[in-house]
Design a protein that fits this description.
The complex is a heterodimer of chains A (95) and B (413).
Chain A (H helix, E strand, L loop, with lengths): L1 E5 L13 E5 L3 H11 L3 H5 L10 E5 L2 E2 L15 E6 L9
Parallel strand pairs in A: 1-5
Antiparallel strand pairs in A: 1-2, 3-4, 3-5
Chain B lengths: L3 E6 L5 E2 L14 E5 L1 H7 L2 H5 L29 E3 L1 H7 L3 E6 L10 H15 L3 E5 L3 H13 L2 E7 L4 H8 L4 E5 L3 H14 L3 E2 L5 H6 L2 H10 L7 E5 L4 H15 L10 E7 L4 H7 L25 H11 L3 E4 L1 H15 L5 H15 L8 E6 L24 H11 L3
Parallel strand pairs in B: 5-13, 6-7, 6-9, 7-8, 10-11, 10-13, 11-12
Antiparallel strand pairs in B: 1-2, 1-3, 4-5
Helix pairs in contact in B: 3-13, 4-5, 5-6, 9-10, 10-12, 11-12, 13-14
The chains are: A alpha+beta (95), B alpha/beta (413).
């Protein structure tokens, strides 16, 4: 199962400056593990040690925050789109 | 002078230097100011504070600036009112109102945060101040920028009250109204911030700015006689103030300035038309579901609160709670405060008074407990909210008969 994942600017250093990458997996959790195997070090930036997304990272599946779905266990299917967006106090990219 | 060691991520605790930054570059958590409490503790005593000026600068060692403040000489140390009449109406025997509706110079608690933010921006060498605001912050940024001789660009949601708009323009600020909610304005500002090297008080200056609110908490504790109340009811928008009052109480405790321990229950107050934080508290979760605001309490209408998680945590940790009230209840509460204490607050103050009433009815606040209601803004800025709630005064001829006619008709009132 291949899905598109949008990468936020501060993490693009880890994806060879790609703003959008493709990852495999049938759940959000599997997608994140697959991302890590492609781009070493990206998972610890997105997830806590227990594998759930960090408090100030929002993961959207087709525009819906996965916190309001099934968290990292949320199922994904072919053609879905995932966005990883830092939820930054007061806004983004202020530096 | 200055006791700031640096900035620290509230989430992963990584350290960062004192710079105009607000986000942890590793985990994206918010940064907060890291103080040298050991040094502060050697200098700050009740006596040293009492010898200071009647303003927020009596707590200057606990403010995140390295040099003397550059603006806002008279901000803070606002009245702490023993509210016997309101207490009687609410069934509370030990009620106080912390009245920032008369804060200098722009009549809201925002003067505290902006006095710090603009002073810090000057330390960093910025020549332009900016912010996203629901109105009170706009007024204060405009006023303090004018005082400092700096330019200001201020972004607000379209449709704010006239008092908030004119109360910004008068200072010569560049005011930009954005077609959307505060949350849209905030998002736009973060994009503007990436293109302009300005001091955005609630973005890149945010860690410093937020700590100005601590002075509101210090004053409550000092004015109560160096102790903290049993209950404090705080209006919640972005959730910064509620966390800073809590932080202020604990800093005073840590510095040995208080009689007894902090056992204050902190209550979050919102308008039902924009209540993501109180909804989360009531639902027993710390995940904030953003909402589209629809309330007359525009100054606290933030649907996606930046510090919402910490607001929920503060209420829960302290043993407090969160409640919200309808717009009609907000108006009734504004009237109640005015008619009992002679204090005309804005809609957000109606929210805290009305929520207090609700919490008393629920039995969460007990009659003999010491309770403080936070009044953070002035009613003259939001008169539109009262339209239709009062009839125009009777017009009479300048003759005694004319008055006596009206008087005899109203004498029973």
């Amino acid at each position: 199962m291949a899905v598109k994942v949008r990468i936020p600017t501060p993490l693009m250093k880890l994806t060879d400056n790609q703003a959008e990458v493709t990852a495999e997996g049938s759940t959000i959790s599997e997608i994140l593990n697959n991302l890590e195997s492609q781009f070493n070090g990206i998972k610890e930036r997105i997830c806590e040690e227990n594998g759930s997304p960090r408090r100030f990272i929002n993961v959207y599946l087709n525009e819906e925050d996965i916190r309001f779905l099934d968290g990292e266990r949320t199922a994904v299917k072919d053609g879905d789109e995932i966005s990883i967006i830092p939820a930054i106090a007061g806004g983004t990219g202020a530096r | 002078m200055g006791y700031v060691k640096g900035l620290r991520c509230k989430e992963c605790k990584r350290d960062f230097p004192k710079e105009p930054i607000h986000v942890c570059e590793f985990c994206f958590g918010p940064l907060e100011v890291d103080y040298d409490y050991e040094e502060i503790g050697k200098r700050v005593t009740r006596k040293s504070i009492q010898a200071g000026p009647p303003s927020m600068w009596r707590y200057k060692e606990l403010m995140p600036i390295d040099e003397d403040h550059k603006v806002g000489e008279h901000v803070g140390f606002t009245p702490f009112v023993r509210a016997k009449n309101l207490g009687k109406a609410l069934g509370l025997n030990n009620l106080y109102v912390k009245n920032d509706s008369v804060n200098h110079p722009t009549f809201s608690f925002k003067d505290r945060v902006v006095a710090v933010a603009v002073s810090k921006a000057i330390e960093f060498g910025f020549d332009t101040i900016s912010c996203a605001s629901t109105g009170n912050l706009a007024n204060s940024v405009a006023a303090h920028s004018a005082e400092a001789g700096l330019k200001s660009y201020i972004f607000i949601p379209d449709g704010l009250e006239a008092g908030k708009i004119l109360g910004t323009l008068i200072y010569g600020a560049q005011l930009i109204a954005v077609n959307g909610s505060y949350d849209d304005v905030n998002r736009l500002c973060s994009e503007v911030a990436a293109h302009h090297k300005w001091a955005f008080v609630n973005i890149n200056i945010r860690p410093y700015y937020g700590d100005g609110s601590k002075s509101y908490g210090y004053e409550i504790a000092e004015q109560l006689g160096w102790r903290t109340p049993d209950n404090v009811i705080v209006p919640v928008a972005g959730s910064s103030l509620i966390t800073k009052i809590w932080k202020a109480f604990h800093e005073f405790q840590m510095l040995g300035l208080l009689d007894g321990k902090v056992q204050t229950k902190v209550f979050a107050a919102q308008a039902t038309g924009c209540s993501p934080v109180t909804t989360a508290i009531k639902n027993g979760t710390d995940i904030i579901k953003p909402v589209k605001p629809n309330t007359i309490a525009k100054s606290i209408a933030i649907g996606n609160p930046a510090d919402g998680y910490y607001g929920v945590r503060t209420a829960n940790e302290s043993g407090g709670y969160g409640e919200d009230i309808t717009d009609m209840e907000v108006i009734e509460a504004m009237k109640l405060l005015a008619e009992t204490e002679g204090i005309f607050t804005e809609t957000a103050g109606g929210v805290t008074v009305g929520v207090t009433q609700k919490l008393v009815k629920q039995g969460r606040i007990k009659p003999d407990e010491t309770t403080v209601i936070c009044i953070t803004g002035n009613g003259l800025k939001t008169v539109e909210a009262l339209e239709g709630h009062y009839t125009a005064p009777t017009v009479i001829e300048p003759k005694l008969d004319s008055f006596e006619d009206v008087y005899s008709n109203s004498a029973t009132v």
